[in-house]
Amino acid sequence: PCHVAVDPANRFVVAANYTSGSIAVLPIRPDGRLARFSGCIHHRGRGPHPKRQEGAHSHAVVFSPDGRYLYAVDLGVDRIFAYRCGGQNGRLVPDKSAAIALPAGSGPRSLVFHPNGRLAFCINELSSTVAVLRFDAADASLSLAQIVSTLPADFIGPNSAADIRVSACGGFVLASNRGHDSLAVFQLLPDDRLHLLQIVACGGRTPRNFVPTPAKGFFLVANQDSDEIAVFHQDRPSGLLRDTGSRCAVPSPVCLTWR
Which of 42, 81, 159, 164 could potentially form a cystine with 72 if both were Cys, beta carbons 3.0 to 4.6 Å apart? Predict the structure, then answer.
């Protein structure tokens, strides 16, 4: 398993299983414990990458803003699967009309929805791109609007995109690069397209995950291979990031969350 999501109504938990390319549903008992899984769905297929896409690889599970749908992001088959959620135990019903296929070799890794409810953004690990997706709340369908690179045009080294976030104000989208070891900052334009503002060094090596802090305007970056968390400040008017120089030593940080 590599990712987990909790049903917004707190009825069940869904886990994404990377190696098997499956998603598993586990009901939540009244005392908060998890019951034995009530369902397991295996994805099928492959992509053009000989080592990373020899089969399905579920990488993330994300609920729609209204909680009616679950989206399973599969790196191995370049697809975001869609499921209607029903019942207390989390019965998932496939909805092919709401799913979306991304360009071959993209390697979709994770998905975030914009607060406006009209857009979603998918980070593509293998192609180092961000896909801008229009979201239709009526039928929960996703449609491709734009694909933008997370890398400088002249970069030719190995890279895998990792994480994606929408700023608290909704005006900016941020993505991390492992290999180039950087953070890309995009401005969301009025026509719902992304414009690259900045690519800044992440302050370490292999920024696998990053999160905004409760104090608005700051981001913590988990630099896995330099064993540290770096603190960045985001300027509110411009959206540009600045490395504060502050560091926290943590062995191989891969995921950050606030409680």
Answer: 81
